[in-house]
Design brief:
Layout: H1 2-14, H2 23-30, H3 35-52, E1 63-65, E2 76-78
Antiparallel strand pairs: 1-2
Amino acid sequence: MDLLEWVQRGTTKIMKGIKHLFYEARLTELGLFTLEKRRLWEDLVAVFRYLKGTYKKVGEGLFSRACSDRTRSNGFKLKVGRF
């Protein structure tokens, strides 16, 4: 994550007219947030969805557990549905 933050810092320095500003000011000028704030925001959204009962993990519901006596099967079948 430090690498991603480093790349974002460097990319915002390239922008003309704002390279003299501090990192947080450059982000504000571009309408962006720090990566730490974005991670916090996503955590808060996940908690809200969990409390409202609409939270689903990525990929949850894609596979169904198929009971099988076959030893060479992994036991998961892909569900057919709309996304």
